[in-house]
Amino acid sequence: MSETSDNDADGRSPWAGLQGIAFAEVRPAGHPISGTVTVPGSKSFTNRALILAGAAEGVSTLTGLLRSDDSYWCIDALKRLGVGVEVEGTTARIDGSGTRWPAKSADLFIGSAGTIGRFLPGVLAAAPEGRYRVAASRQLMRRPVSPLIDALATLGAEISHEGEPGGFPMTVSARGLKGGKLVMSGKVSSQFISGALIAAPLAKAPVELEVADHIVQSDYVRMTLDAMEAFGVEVAHDEALTRFQAKPQRYRGGGFAIEADASTTTYFLALAAATRGRIVIDNIGTATRQPDLRLIDVLERMGCKVEREVGRVTVVGPERLKGGFSVDMKPMSDATLTLAALAPFADAPIAIEGVAHIRKHESDRIAVMAKALADLGIGVDERPDGLVVRPGAPRFAELETHDDHRVAMSLAVLAAAGEGVRLVDPGCVSKTCPVFFEEIGKLGVPVELF
Questions:
Q1: Which CATH number is associated with domain 43-257?
Q2: Taking a C-beta distance cutoff of 8 angstroms, is the pair 423, 351 a contact?
Q3: How far apart, in whole angstroms, are the C-alpha atoms of residue 251 and residue 100?
Q4: Which CATH topology does 23-40+260-449 take?
Q5: pLDDT tens-digit series, residues 314-332
Q6: What is the pLDDT of residue 5?
Q7: pTM, two decimal places
Q8: Cβ distance 66 to 261 under 8 Å?
Q9: Are 221 and 241 in contact (CB under 8 A)?
Q10: Mode of pairing for the β-strands spanning 243-246 and 207-215
């Protein structure tokens, strides 16, 4: 793993694709996009599994690993903590430390990985000793983490900050967690709840966690609980995920198969929807807990033919997409921009609601997408919690990606069905899908990188 400077780092790693590429010009496909796609591994599951394997006692083997910027920095952090990690292709072998990190002092850099930023501090603080500085990219430094840090402090964690309180860079002075009762908000990010839950069983005494309001995307907390159980830890909770009880336990190493990324899946399915094509995703289906696959329900509402199977999904686009409805995208908010990119091709406006929290993701996704659509000549109304997109014929334009992988991939979908776009800094897709432009090129979308 290479050295990096956290002063001006943009979160790109040696695993990033498109290094040295300034622009991606995506031109109209001019024909239905059809084919079968095998989607890379889930970013959410990859980083959960890596953190839990590193904190577990014994050896773990992870298969289906996503090779992306976020996973690179997670592996880099584990190695700097002294954890043995061997990666071959999409398989990783991790010799866990049981949170007794071999390195008692380390400088860690986590890039733009929000999941690592929310999952790592707790397992660092749970160590019996050590002092660990955690730095991040400029983008992640702008994203909130205070609710998690405050919760960990209640459990006895000692975490200090060099800049804004509750932000990066931070230093964790490990001395173990004492346990106790937490009251947290889940309305900004489910990752705060997940981060506290991952740390809770490592405390010296039981931890009770109460959610004061609601969890913005509860499916991701269920995914966290599933991953924890796979590593030998069980947390009692009510069905509504408002109360949790974690007894002191240790994570145990083992095998973990990482499933495909449902969020990435949405861009390929949207290509079929927008171009009257047919796309088969052959490695994820109805068995997944990942919420973004529910976009297929919205696509069906838009007139697509959808075939659902346990391990695969097929979407066939109609002659003209249907609009004229509103949809609460909060449960599947990472697919918001995918739907916004499809909406201009519908026969009536589509109102997207319930996603105010995505203003605090890699970019202000509502504002960024509203401006991009306007620059393309599409009628759009920006609202506090979403946007209304009206039918139109997108024109060609050069658009900023704002170092946001979901902006880049959704606009590429729109470009293939419209008049094309030139994307500035397309390499941001390396956060979750470094091979994205290569894959849409294989499907017949003209792409020029320069």
A1: 3.65.10.10
A2: no
A3: 12
A4: UDP-n-acetylglucosamine1-carboxyvinyl-transferase; Chain (3.65.10)
A5: 999 999 999 999 999 999 9
A6: 42
A7: 0.94
A8: yes
A9: yes
A10: antiparallel
What is the pLDDT at residue 165?
85
Largest CA distance in the chain: 63
Q: Rounded distance, CA 193 to CA 107, Å?
A: 25
Q: Which two tokens stand for residue 401?
A: 């990606």
Q: Where in the chain is the domain with CATH 3.65.10.10?
A: 23-40+260-449, 43-257
Q: Which helix (H) or strand (E) holds 267?
A: helix 262-275
Instruction: Read off the tokens for 405.
Output: 């992988």
Query: What tokens appear for 335 in the block?
Result: 């697919």
Which token pair is 407?
A: 């902006």
Q: Which of 261, 334, 403, 425 is catalytic?
A: 334
Q: Rounded to an integer, what distance in angstroms lies between the CA atom of residue 279 and that of residue 293?
A: 14
Three-state DSSP at 313 gives strand
**Structural tokens at position 175:** 């001395």
* Per-residue model confidence (pLDDT) at position 219: 96
User: What are the DSSP calls for 141-178, one per residue?
Assistant: HTS--HHHHHHHHHTT-EEEESSSTT-SSEEEEE----
Distance in angstroms (rounded) separating the CA atoms of residues 67 and 89: 8
Q: Which residues contact 342 (CB under 8 A, 6 or more apart)?
A: 270, 273, 274, 302, 321, 413, 414
- 95 annotated active-site: no
| DSSP E strands, 193-295 | 207-215, 236-237, 243-246, 255-257, 278-281
* Range 247-271 burial, b when 16+ CB lie within 10 A, else e: eebbbbbbebebbbbbbbbbbbbbb
Strands (E), 275-333: 278-281, 305-308, 313-316, 325-328
Chain length of the chain:
450
Residues 317 and 341: beta-carbon distance below 8 Å = no
Instruction: Find the range with the poorest average confidence among 12-16, 219-223, 229-233, 298-302.
Output: 12-16
